[in-house]
Amino acid sequence: MKLLITTAALALLAVSSPAAAQSTQSAAAPQSGGIITHKPKISGDAAMKALVDLQTAVTKNDTASIPAKVAAAKAAAKTADDRYAIALLEVKAAGSAKDESAIAAALEDMMSSGSVKPEEQIGIYSALAQVYTDLKQPQKALQAYQQLSQLDPSNVNAIAALAEAQVSAGQPAAALPLLQKGIKLQQANGQKAPESWYKRATAIAYEAKLPGAAEMAREWIAAYPNPANWHDAVAIYRNLNQPDVESTLDLLRVQYAAGGLKSPGEYALYAQAAADQSNYNEAKAIVDAGVAAKIVDPASPQFRDIVNGLKGKPIATAADLDAAVQMSPTPINLLRIGDRFYGLGNYAKAAEIYRQVMTKPGADKDLTNLHLGMALARAGDKAGATAALNAVTGARADVAKYWLVYAQQHG
Q1: Distances (CA, A) of 20 to 35, 120, 233
Q2: What rounded mean pLDDT belongs to the chain?
Q3: For residues 268 and 272, what is the distance between their CA atoms, to the nearest angstrom?
Q4: pLDDT for the residue numbered 30
Q5: Stretch 135-142: mean pLDDT, rounded?
Q6: Which of 19, 77, 263, 370 to pair with 226, CA 20 to 30 A apart?
Q7: Residue 325: its pLDDT value, please?
Q8: pLDDT over 70 (residue 9)
Q9: Could you give the count of Cα atoms lying within 13 Å of 219 in the half-sphere of its Cβ?
């Protein structure tokens, strides 16, 4: 009489829901129906008897006899479905023993059985990826996540997991575009990617010193523009690029405008850089702003010399600056006059001066367009700021891009 292997006898042969197949929460998911399975057709009496013997040992948790029963079942197996049924029981036994290495081996046996259906692969690769991650085998986890991502290219959770696997495998340069792809997929679906995606992508790029780090940081503050993020985004650019004094000052200006100056050291650097350009108006204004924000202690050793140095410096009035314009200064001196109007908070007048600079032979067009865009952005002229900042090329272009983000948010 032919032996029958029933769903009751082999619980793992039941088909679980497609939604459950997406789970990567537990390496033992196959035991609890966390992956899709099908009921295999066993080849004959010999294979069936060996499977029932194995199933009995697994059900009784007879761990001492299970290895021999597995070997006997494999010897009796003749078809892909036979091998698939054995693997299902191996998964159950490994899950009961909470043996992740055995779970991985059983899942690999399932995949190599030749009986896995297309709709089952996502769940199996999800489980394999998770268990190899838990086992700290990054290369094998990476391979499983790659398979999972190929099977379901729009699965953002799989993309995120694959990116983390790339990092664990020492391949951060491959992880960054994956996270960027995931962000774009969510945007295409009418969703805003969680901030954690932007922060993780930025952190990966920054820690690996990837060329896309500054761009990722700007995408982060464009999506989640708060003072703390602005602080970190500008700091990332400065740390990676070591900009010159001019660019450092312009970066600190946008950081301050966005509310992102957070430390006494940043206020001191801003004040000193402005003073080095003889822009005492702006240097004094930023120190006063730091004091008002209760970040700067003017009596501290860090600020005592700055404050004392500014006391003896002339603070230009608008009338003084207008008179200086009439003296037909050189393009760079005229630009510095515009900077002093900027320091006074008279952004409209600063923009007027910068436009005059643009008409002068020998003017630094990139620097002037940058400062024009800065003034227009602070004045709330989004369109004008965007046009000026987009015209900046060369070494100042990256700084202009930070100001472009600011202009889009405050126009």
Answers
A1: 6, 11, 39
A2: 90
A3: 6
A4: 33
A5: 94
A6: 370
A7: 96
A8: no
A9: 25
Write down the residue that tokens 């509310």 correspond to.
Answer: 259
Q: What is the pLDDT of residues 186-211, one digit of tens each?
A: 999 999 999 999 999 999 999 999 99
**Domain 316-411 belongs in CATH node 1.25.40:** yes
Full 3-state SS string of 300-325? CHHHHHHHHHHHCCCCCCHHHHHHHH
pTM here is 0.80
DSSP state of 23: -
**What is the pLDDT, as a whole number, of residue 19?**
27
The number of residues in the chain equals 411
Side-chain-facing half-sphere of 67: CA atoms under 13 Å: 3
| Closest to 43 measured CA to CA, from 97, 94, 80 | 80
> DSSP letter string over 222-289?
HHS--HHHHHHHHHHHHHHH---HHHHHHHHHHHHHTT---SHHHHHHHHHHHHHTT-HHHHHHHHHH
Q: Give how far Cα 6 sits from Cα of 41, 73, 208, Å.
A: 11, 17, 54
Count other Cβ atoms within 10 Å, centred on residue 43.
16
Q: What is the pLDDT of residues 241-287, one digit of tens each?
A: 999 999 999 999 999 999 999 999 999 999 999 999 999 999 999 99
CATH 2.40.50.140 for domain 11-195, yes or no, is: no
C-alpha 46, offset from chain centre: 55
Q: Enumerate the CATH 1.25.40.10 domain ranges in the chain, comma separated.
A: 11-195
Report the half-sphere exposure of 132 (CA within 13 A, side-chain side).
27
Write down the pLDDT at residue 34.
60
Query: How far apart, in whole angstroms, are the C-alpha atoms of residue 247 and residue 132?
Result: 46
Tokens of 5: 């292997």
